[in-house]
Design brief:
Helices cover 30% and strands 20% of the residues. It has helices at residues 6-16, 79-82, 114-118, 150-171, 180-195, 230-237, 242-247, 272-287, 313-325, 327-339, 363-367, 373-381, 395-404, 467-472, and strands at 20-21, 29-31, 35-40, 46-50, 53-59, 74-77, 90-92, 97-99, 122-126, 130-135, 142-146, 211-213, 219-223, 251-255, 292-294, 343-346, 349-352, 412-415, 426-427, 436-439, 446-453, 456-463. The longest helix has 22 residues, at 150-171. The protein starts with 5 loop residues before the first helix and ends in a 16-residue tail after the last helix.
């Protein structure tokens, strides 16, 4: 995807053929203003100074790779924000160009001093083995330098490695199927927790209700459908300080249902990875009872009408659960489903698995949604109106649902449930409904989350890594990726 505004495409074409190739050395500052510089990639990150604003540009090296090579993604971020909590980063893939511009809606969430960044016209192009930097504004100082000290080189990798070690300590053997007795004990403990699940108003029977109302100070991290993709969840937990923020009580992980049932046609009948993923989710809930929440989806059931690729996945799921874990585990899992929330609300967003209610209702009705089968069906199975689903929900339904929960019209409405294309993982303003987003986190190659920056829900996309393999290694810490020799 070329995320360069159209005005700059032609201008970039004009200058990109006449840039200087320079290899910066440690301590050297190269002035970018008014010229383009091509920098061969040696495995080291870069820093761009734009007045008071710093922008770090790091190669995104997979955890399993020990040596830095060409053709990696780069991520661009403000080090003051990104390394001190959950921060928004921009991703630059090989063959792409990226412009720093106020015209790109989410970039204001990257910077501590956005005015300083947007006063310039910094562009970065990724040519695979080199980066091209250019700033057309000559009277403003924009400077490029190499981050070449050992701490700087490995800072991003060390952060992810620390999260990986944290996960290994938290999950233990949960990256493999648990023995039946241990799995049952884990699930029973989680079900006991759900009786007094935090942030869920009580329904009229005194149970934790179907509405999860998160305090505004907590940073939400939303995941869409996972469909048995264990590595997708684990990848997210090693990124962007999410796990650290959860441990500190500053962030909450919310999974928007459909954790089970593989999507690939040739795997639709195989349920072991679904069990493994649920084991991990239960471990996380027990470890972070006020920081991990599961919102129910339609596939999270034993219903006989849950089908994919001609496979009755609800029935196959129940049969495999019984074979591996027994009837009592099956009953406890059904209890977990019945105790799960259906809607989550916090500052700036409302989310559920599938769709808004198709009728006017009150907040109390949402809290007591489990007493209304038609409402449960809407929230877990509904779809946007289209030629294929003429009875689906509309912009008016989204507006009414926001009003029911006393949210303003700018409040994002986020669902999972169905992908919009074969090769993406998040879609914004779906159906031309402002703030209506679809999040689907089960792609085998990339995983999306949505999190809040400066009051706005913004997507983050990460390449999926084989995290279950890395976590299962007996040896402890993986060595950080190594860069090549320092330029001289």
């Amino acid at each position: 995807m070329d995320n360069q505004p159209s005005f700059w495409k032609g201008l970039w074409s004009y200058v990109s053929g006449a840039v200087d190739t320079i290899t910066p050395i440690p301590g050297q500052r190269l002035r970018l203003s008014g010229r383009g510089i091509r920098v061969p990639f040696h495995g080291y990150p870069f820093e761009v100074q734009m007045g008071e604003q710093l922008l770090d540009i790091y190669p995104d090296i997979p955890l399993r790779q020990r040596q830095r090579r060409d053709h990696h993604d780069f991520i661009l971020f403000d080090p003051k924000r990104y390394f001190h909590g959950i921060g928004h980063a921009l991703r630059l893939r090989p063959g792409e160009k990226l412009s720093i511009s106020h015209r790109i809606w989410d970039q204001r969430h990257v910077f501590t001093h956005p005015r300083e960044a947007f006063r310039r016209y910094l562009q970065v192009a990724h040519e695979g083995d080199s980066l091209i930097f250019w700033d057309s504004i000559s009277e403003l100082g924009t400077y490029l330098s190499l981050i070449a000290d050992e701490q700087g080189v490995s800072r991003l990798s060390r952060r992810r490695q620390g999260a990986l070690e944290h996960l290994r300590q938290d999950l233990g053997a949960a990256v493999t199927l648990l023995p039946p007795d241990e799995a049952l004990d884990l699930l029973c403990r989680v079900n006991r927790l759900l009786v007094d699940d935090p942030y869920r108003p009580r329904d009229d029977e005194g149970n934790a209700g179907a509405l999860l109302e998160l305090p505004d100070h907590l940073i939400p991290v939303l995941l869409g459908d996972l469909h048995a993709q264990v590595d997708n969840l684990l990848t997210v937990l090693t990124e962007n300080g999410y796990l650290e923020a959860m441990s500190a009580g500053r962030a909450v992980l919310v999974i928007l249902g459909d954790a089970v049932h593989p999507e690939e046609p040739d795997e639709a009948e195989f349920m072991d990875s679904s069990l493994m993923l649920m084991d991990i989710i239960f471990h996380l809930k027990l470890r972070f009872p006020s920081q991990v929440f599961f919102v129910l989806g339609n596939h999270d059931s034993f219903d006989r009408d849950v089908m994919k690729h001609g496979v009755l996945q609800g029935a196959v799921w129940e049969r495999r659960v019984m074979e591996l874990r027994g009837r009592r585990y099956r009953d406890e899992l059904a209890r977990f489903y019945r105790q799960s929330p259906l809607v989550v609300k916090s500052a700036g967003f409302i989310a559920c698995h599938a769709a808004p209610a198709r009728r006017k209702l009150s907040r109390d009705s949402v809290v007591s949604a489990w007493h209304f089968p038609d409402l449960v069906r809407d929230l877990t199975r509904g779809r946007l109106k289209s030629l294929a689903f003429p009875a689906g929900y509309t912009r008016a339904d989204v507006r009414r649902f926001r009003n029911s929960l006393k949210a303003n019209r700018e409040c994002a409405f986020i669902v999972g449930h169905y992908p919009r294309s074969e090769n993406e993982t998040v879609w914004l303003n779906v159906g031309k409904i402002p703030g209506h987003h679809v999040l689907y986190s089960a792609r085998p190659d990339q995983v999306a989350v949505m999190t809040r920056f400066d009051g706005e829900m913004v997507p983050q996309i990460y390449p999926v890594e084989p995290m279950s393999e890395l976590l299962s290694r007996e040896r402890g810490r993986l060595p950080a990726p190594e860069a090549g020799p320092l330029p001289s």
